[in-house]
């Protein structure tokens, strides 16, 4: 296969960018002891979940350099393919290798674009192709994954977004199994994410966290109290709407359980609706429970 000047130039460009990447890495790299500790942790995590949740790098410079390398590799591979003449004798394995290289680079680019578009669901791109099937067919694997995810949700060693992503994945696992509840998905897990949301200065994270927690398949009166507080006190109207939906979600979940919370939940919703002086709270709850049939049902449950 002929190698033209363009191929050589691009190859040299890749080498230059790669060297720059290593230079940037070594100027910002953590200490050796930290790397050893991190490698031990990654090894344990890999054995349990077969995936590392840690990003390759949070350094914007490295990320930009990696993007340049990917683009150059794609261009070089495409040039190699275009330089194959009609009468040139090129073996099938060579062609296959080049085509697979293009596909792999493009897939990696799509994964990175997915992460940039919605980092919360970046974990999905890291899952093995047979993840759904393993969750359904391998109870030991499922238990290990769910316990690891719950541990990650509660751990302060991960970023807020990584912890929220773990809750999202745990919820996804529950849906894959067609279950309405799982022992790992409990108030402690949901409450810890609500704790992060209520103190976060990142409005996007806060909204995503409350969107997920207000629909959590967990029936617990403590969530009713927390959603009531958000409904009354938050400055964001969309967040308050989510909180009102969370209250109604808790009501319907309490109806289907035997934990005895249905009376308390009904009393709380009626009290908010009937006694609030906040027109926004009144309006949001009226949309949920304002018709007479629903109000009568709440009154009935509130009386035990």
Report what the structure shows.
The protein has helices at residues 5-28, 32-49, 60-82, 92-117, 123-126, 131-137, 139-154, 160-176, 187-199, 203-213, 221-233, 237-255, 262-275, 279-289, 292-302. With 304 residues, the protein is an all-alpha fold. The protein folds into three domains: 5-117, no CATH class; 121-215, no CATH class; 219-304, no CATH class. α13 crosses α15 (292-302). The protein is elongated. Residues 19-57 have low confidence and may be disordered. Residues 34-59 are annotated as: Disordered. Residues 41-53 have a biased composition (Basic and acidic residues). This is HEAT repeat domain-containing protein. It comes from Pseudoalteromonas aliena SW19.
State the domain count: 3
The number of distinct β-strands equals: 0
What class would the helix/strand composition place it in?
A: mainly alpha
User: What characteristic shape results from the CA principal axes?
Assistant: elongated
Order of helices and strands: HHHHHHHHHHHHHHH
- Estimated share of beta-strand residues: under 5%
What is the share of helical residues?
Answer: over 70%
Poorly predicted regions are: 19-57
Average pLDDT confidence is 76
Radius of gyration: 26 Å
What is the terminal separation in angstroms? Answer: 83 Å
Tally of separate helices:
15
Q: Largest sheet, if any? A: none
Organism: Pseudoalteromonas aliena SW19
Biased composition (Basic and acidic residues): 41-53
Protein name: HEAT repeat domain-containing protein
Region (Disordered): 34-59
């Amino acid at each position: 296969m002929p190698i033209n000047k363009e191929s050589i130039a691009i190859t040299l460009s890749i080498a230059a960018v790669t060297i720059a990447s290593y230079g940037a890495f070594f100027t910002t790299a953590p200490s050796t002891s930290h790397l050893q500790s991190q490698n031990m942790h990654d090894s344990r995590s890999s054995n349990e979940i077969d995936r590392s949740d840690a990003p390759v790098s949070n350094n914007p410079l490295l990320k930009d350099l990696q993007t340049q390398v990917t683009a150059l590799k794609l261009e070089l591979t495409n040039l190699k393919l275009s330089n194959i003449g009609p009468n040139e004798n090129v073996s099938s394995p060579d062609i296959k290798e080049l085509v697979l290289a293009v596909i792999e680079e493009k897939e990696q680019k799509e994964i990175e674009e997915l992460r940039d578009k919605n980092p919360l669901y970046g974990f999905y791109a890291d899952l093995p192709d047979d993840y759904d099937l393993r969750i359904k067919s391998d109870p030991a694997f499922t238990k290990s994954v769910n316990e690891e995810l719950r541990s990650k949700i509660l751990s302060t060693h991960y970023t807020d977004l990584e912890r929220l992503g773990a809750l999202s994945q745990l919820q996804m696992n529950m849906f894959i199994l067609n279950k309405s509840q799982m022992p790992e998905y409990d108030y402690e897990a949901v409450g810890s994410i609500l704790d992060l949301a209520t103190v976060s200065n990142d409005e996007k994270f806060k909204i995503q966290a409350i969107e997920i927690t207000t629909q959590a398949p967990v029936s617990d009166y403590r969530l009713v109290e927390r959603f009531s507080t958000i409904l009354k006190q938050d400055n964001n109207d969309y967040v308050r709407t989510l909180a009102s939906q969370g209250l109604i979600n808790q009501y319907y979940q309490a109806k289907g359980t035997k934990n005895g919370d249905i009376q308390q939940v009904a009393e709380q919703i009626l009290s908010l609706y009937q006694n609030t002086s906040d027109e926004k709270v009144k309006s949001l709850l009226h949309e949920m429970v304002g018709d007479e049939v629903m109000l009568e049902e709440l009154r009935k449950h509130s009386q035990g």
